[in-house]
Every structure is written in C-alpha cells, then in structure tokens.
C-alpha cells in the first residue's frame, strides 16, 4: 500500500531524538479542511433533483414489473374462473334455447 505524497509519515515529522511520540493533535493543524465544492449549497438542489429522478426511475421500473406480474396473475385467475363456470353457463344457455 503506498502513501499519498501530500501526507508525510509520522517518522518524517517527528525526529528520532525523543522516546516520547507526540499526540496527533500536536502535529495536525487545528483547522479542518475546507469542504469539497460539490457539497456547496448551490449544487445541493441539483444533486437532490438528480437523486429524486433516479429514485423515481428505479421505483417506476420496479412498480412496472410488479404490476405486469399482478396483471398476469389476474388474467390467469379470471381464465381459470371462467373455465370452472363455463360448463354451467353452457348448460343454462342450452336449457333456455330448448325451452323457447
């Protein structure tokens, strides 16, 4: 694993003359680094809009798949119900035509 060039090793910062190593806060600056420009307030609405669009697209695709599956199940159930009732409906229709 290679070290980034911008961060010095602790052995490069602290001389080997002492047996006590300093605490990291003695070496590191007190001010935190500035936040990246991508998280600035100006780009936050654009990022939010992009995220919302992505979530809506994923949700719509999943919903479309589930609706297609549910539609297929409903069609199969309706066909099975019709097949069960069809002989009785045919008999009733034949009885009506024979009595007329």
Account of the protein in words:
By secondary structure, the chain is an all-alpha fold. It is built from three helices and no strands. The chain has helices spanning about 10-15, 25, 45-100.
Helix content: 55-70%
Mean pLDDT figure: 78
Q: How many DSSP helices? A: 3
CA gyration radius, whole angstroms: 37 Å
Structural shape: rod-shaped
**Beta-strand share of residues:** under 5%
Number of beta strands: 0
Structural class estimated from helices and strands? mainly alpha
Low-confidence stretches: none
Series of secondary-structure elements, N-terminal to C-terminal = HHH
The N- to C-terminal Cα distance equals 94 Å
Q: For the report, how would you describe the main beta sheet?
A: none
Short description:
The chain has 100 residues and is mainly alpha-helical. It is 64% helix and 0% strand.
Name some characteristics of this structure.
single chain; 64% helix; 100 residues; 3 helices; mainly alpha; rod-shaped
Strand and helix map with partners:
Elements: H1 10-13, H2 24-27, H3 44-99
């Amino acid at each position: 694993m290679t070290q980034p060039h911008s961060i010095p090793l602790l052995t490069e910062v602290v001389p080997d003359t002492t047996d006590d190593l300093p605490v990291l806060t003695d070496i590191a600056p007190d001010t935190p680094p500035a936040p990246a420009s991508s998280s600035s307030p100006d780009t936050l609405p654009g990022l939010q809009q992009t995220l919302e669009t992505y979530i809506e697209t994923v949700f719509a695709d999943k919903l479309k798949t589930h609706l297609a599956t549910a539609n297929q199940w409903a069609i199969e159930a309706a066909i099975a119900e019709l097949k069960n009732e069809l002989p009785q409906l045919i008999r009733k229709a034949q009885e009506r035509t024979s009595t007329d």
